[in-house]
Predict the 3D structure of the following.
Amino acid sequence: MNRHVAQYRGPAALAKFAAGQSNPTYRIDAASGIYVMRRKPFGALLPSAHAVDREFRLLKALHPTGFPVPKPLALCTDSNILGADFYVMEMIVGRSFWDGALPNLNTVQRRSIYAAMLDVLAQLHSIDPAAVGLGDFGRPGNYFERQVRRWTQQYRASETEHIEDAENLIAWLPQTVPAQERISIVHGDYRIDNLIFAPDQPSVLAVLDWELSTLGDPLADLSYLLMNWEVPHDGTAGIAGLDLDALGIPTLEQAVSHYAAATNRRVVPDLSWYFAYNLFRLMAIVQGIRKRIVDGNASNTQAAIMAQRVRPLAAQAWSCAVRAGAADLAKRRS
């Protein structure tokens, strides 16, 4: 920190944030201010996972554009310092929302928060990757084709039991990949609890947790966010089953229309395939958490609770796949 962070002064105290299932994240309280550090997890890791150097590169590219991300301060790839790659960024102070119902806000405030969330996603997807030095941040070709292959490999690498719904998805998804129309910077985990809002107004101060970011189809981010309208409300981001009109939260159709208007996109396709893919990907991520529990490397104290979601996520993903026309495959496999 003395060598690489401008105006840094110690001493410093370190405390781990409780949130976060993947890269351990720490608050650094120093004489010169508050900082945040993200490092790779402890222990053996899956291939291509936890690339904090990619996160740092993306923050460094986006911050000068005015897009709301923390200012990156220093990257360390010398494992002799902490035993793993890590980076330091500024601390953003604001409001974090974990419950998609926003129970402590009124209808006007809820509507504004959701509008801001959709607008910032549209803003991200309007950035030209090449113009900010990220033209090579993702591989060429169909994004979803690559992602289905990647998350199948990740799932296989951390598999602990046979799950029939997962096997059905692994067979069906590659056969039905939709054509890609656009390419943009994709966050990969865009949801309300990965945003920090201003303390006194509905503006986004920072988008966090860029570990899964790449170049790809912006519909990946949009459909991932819109899955919250499909997931039953349980105190987290899911809002299915709530009286959205009474709460001032946009319906799924209104959210799609808002994003489409903000991106000048006239048509958004049926999202059932995209929901199936996103749930499959989430299932693979949670399976990775489950494997880290087995290996003794889980970062979050709630990891065991998360790990119990693998089968339900697989079942929900397959349900969306059936809605997208996968019933024939199920019959053939049976």
Observations:
- The domain at 12-90 is CATH 3.30.200.20 (Phosphorylase Kinase; domain 1).
- The beta strands are 12-16, 25-30, 33-39, 72-76, 86-90, 184-186, 195-197, 204-207, 214-216.
- The CA atoms of residues 154 and 284 lie 7 Å apart.
